[in-house]
């Protein structure tokens, strides 16, 4: 029997750090996740490495920055030759499972990567690197159109057991869709937004679907996780299980009782647009679009909403979150029933946040703010006391080296994150700053170019610089924790700006690729 710990990593999608009961939220009910905080260490200053789904997941699994690991923004795959911390665990004898949303490869209908021939034919130019597009089709919808369960190659970024869920909310695909078809002859009607139940919500993307709670994606992931944990009961090998919920990411579609579990009037919009004293161009443009009654046709594009609409989004998101919490409770019961609770590290995290009403914004986008940059992170370790908080900085890119250090395994050369295991043990953190790389794959309102930004977060300030744009942001996190006054052009903040620029230069130098290890001097 191995003396290495099992690891159960539970992750949500698009979840603000303060949207948990244990983080002080006055309305949202998350008793099971709160119990994890009571048993473990809750981080209060845990930041993403990029506030976008795919690239931050790539940073989590590789411990490397998006500019280095190749998954810089949504729509790109994590290169097939990338090493992940899951590969290292697997090589050390761990049984590995990914249940739910992976999103390490694109899951849209267009090809994830064009072959060199396709690229030249369509774009009239080749890429700097030759590419085999066939390596990146595993999350493509075509794999899940039949009743035969699609089998992933082993290992899939280190995972041997994969139960894939793609997309979000009522439109989830992957293995979930194959399962849904097998469970109900009415499956298509559950996904037909023209067939939704009546409701009086006006916030965009609120759909009251007829999907029963037991057939919603959260329930599928819960049941698959419970089954996998039950299989570990008699195994002497350690396991790593990545359980990934695509909620509470929009659209807002909590099923059954979770739809009206919360009253919009119980929520407050305490940081309205008017709170920002000198809004940057994209924020001002979003306000203009809202006043004109325009809503983005692309559901993935952030937008500004009325106070009532924000409250509605909050209530529905809270329902989705409490459904996840209920699922977490059942998963933990299964872990205990398998006899593995006392030797299992439990991690709770999210891939990025959500504006969720900050300056009346919803979703996420190319406007940096604490609401999207900071995420929940809880680490429960059987060898450590619980009920603690860690207040020093840490980041998504640090997760891989921390897990490997805790398991007594040597990381691969070129890993860039910094282990925060010392924080879990009650010591100081490993960081004075967090570098957030942020590259979008399309143009947004208020910005005339596709945004490519770098955010730097320290204990005292947050700074943002934009590629090819004559603008920047600087906020005093101590005096202005809600980031409402941009000090970029303030003469009295020149010294702080200069210091942050120097730190940013050092952070970006630190993020440069170090591999491969040289075998000769020349």
- How helix-rich are the residues, as a percent range? 25-40%
Unreliable stretches covering 5 or more consecutive residues: none
Beta-strand portion reads: 15-25%
State the separation between the terminal residues, measured CA to CA.
46 Å
Q: Label the structural class.
A: alpha/beta
How many domain units? 1
Write up what this structure looks like.
- Keywords: Hydrolase, Metal-binding.
- This is Sulfatase-like hydrolase/transferase.
- It holds the Pfam family Sulfatase.
- With 522 residues, the protein is of the alpha/beta class.
- The protein has one domain (6-114, 129-431): Alkaline Phosphatase, subunit A (3-Layer(aba) Sandwich), CATH 3.40.720.10.
- The protein contains 14 helices and 17 strands.
- The strands form four sheets. It has a nine-stranded mixed β-sheet with strand order 6-5-4-7-1-9-11-2-12, with helices on both faces. A four-stranded antiparallel β-sheet has the order 14-15-16-17, with helices on one face.
- β4, α5 and β5 (161-166) form a beta-alpha-beta unit.
- The N and C termini lie far apart (46 Å).
- The model has no long low-confidence stretch (mean pLDDT 95).
Short description:
With 522 residues, the chain is of the alpha/beta class. It is 27% helix and 15% strand. It has helices at residues 31-39, 53-62, 66-69, 85-91, 116-123, 175-183, 187-190, 217-231, 281-291, 307-337, 370-373, 399-406, 421-424, 494-510; strands spanning 6-13, 41-43, 46-47, 95-100, 161-166, 173-174, 239-248, 303-304, 344-350, 361-362, 377-380, 388-390, 394-395, 434-439, 452-457, 461-466, 472-476.
């Amino acid at each position: 029997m191995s003396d290495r710990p099992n690891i159960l990593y539970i992750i949500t999608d698009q979840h603000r750090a303060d949207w948990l009961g244990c983080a002080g939220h006055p309305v949202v009910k998350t008793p099971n996740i709160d119990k994890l905080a009571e048993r473990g260490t809750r981080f209060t200053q845990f930041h993403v490495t990029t506030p976008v789904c795919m690239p931050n997941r790539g940073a989590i699994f590789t411990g490397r920055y998006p500019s280095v690991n190749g998954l810089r923004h949504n729509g790109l795959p994590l290169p097939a030759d990338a090493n992940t911390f899951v590969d290292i665990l697997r090589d050390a004898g761990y049984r590995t499972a990914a249940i739910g949303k992976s999103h390490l490869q694109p899951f849209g209908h267009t090809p994830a990567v064009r072959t060199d021939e396709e690229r030249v034919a369509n774009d009239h130019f080749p890429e700097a690197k030759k590419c085999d597009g066939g390596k990146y089709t595993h999350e493509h919808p075509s794999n899940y159109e039949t009743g035969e369960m699609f089998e992933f190659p082993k290992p899939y970024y280190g995972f041997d057991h994969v139960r894939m869920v793609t997309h979000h909310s009522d439109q989830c695909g992957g293995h979930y869709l194959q399962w849904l078809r097998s469970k109900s002859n009415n499956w298509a009607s559950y996904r037909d937004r023209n067939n939704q139940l009546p409701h009086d919500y006006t916030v965009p993307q609120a759909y009251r679907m007829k999907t029963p709670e037991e057939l919603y994606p959260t329930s599928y992931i819960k049941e698959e996780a419970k089954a996998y944990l039950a299989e570990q009961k008699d195994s002497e090998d350690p396991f790593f299980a990545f359980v990934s919920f695509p909620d509470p990411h929009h659209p807002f579609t909590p099923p059954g009782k979770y739809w009206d579990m919360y009253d919009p009037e119980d929520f407050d919009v305490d940081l309205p647009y008017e709170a920002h004293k000198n809004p940057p161009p994209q924020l001002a443009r979003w306000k203009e679009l809202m006043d004109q009654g325009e809503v983005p046709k692309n559901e993935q594009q952030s937008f500004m909403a009325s106070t009532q609409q924000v409250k509605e989004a909050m209530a529905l998101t809270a329902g989705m979150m409490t459904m996840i919490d209920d699922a977490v409770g059942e998963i933990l019961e299964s872990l205990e029933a398998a006899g593995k609770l006392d030797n299992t590290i439990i991690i709770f995290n999210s891939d990025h946040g959500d504006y969720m009403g900050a300056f009346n914004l919803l979703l996420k986008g190319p406007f940096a703010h604490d609401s999207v940059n900071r995420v929940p992170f809880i680490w429960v370790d059987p060898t450590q006391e619980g009920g603690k908080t860690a207040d020093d900085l840490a980041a998504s890119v640090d997760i891989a080296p921390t897990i490997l250090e805790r398991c007594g395994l040597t990381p691969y050369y070129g890993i860039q994150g910094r282990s925060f295991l010392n924080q879990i043990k009650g010591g100081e953190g490993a960081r004075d700053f967090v570098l957030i790389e942020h590259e979008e794959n399309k143009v947004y309102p208020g910005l005339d170019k596709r945004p490519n930004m770098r955010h730097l977060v320290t204990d005292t300030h947050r700074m943002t610089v934009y590629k090819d744009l004559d603008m920047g942001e600087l906020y005093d996190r101590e005096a202005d924790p809600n980031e409402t006054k941009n000090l970029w052009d303030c003469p009295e903040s020149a010294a702080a700006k200069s210091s942050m620029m120097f730190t940013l230069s050092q952070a970006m130098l630190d993020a440069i690729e170090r591999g491969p290890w040289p075998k000769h001097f020349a």
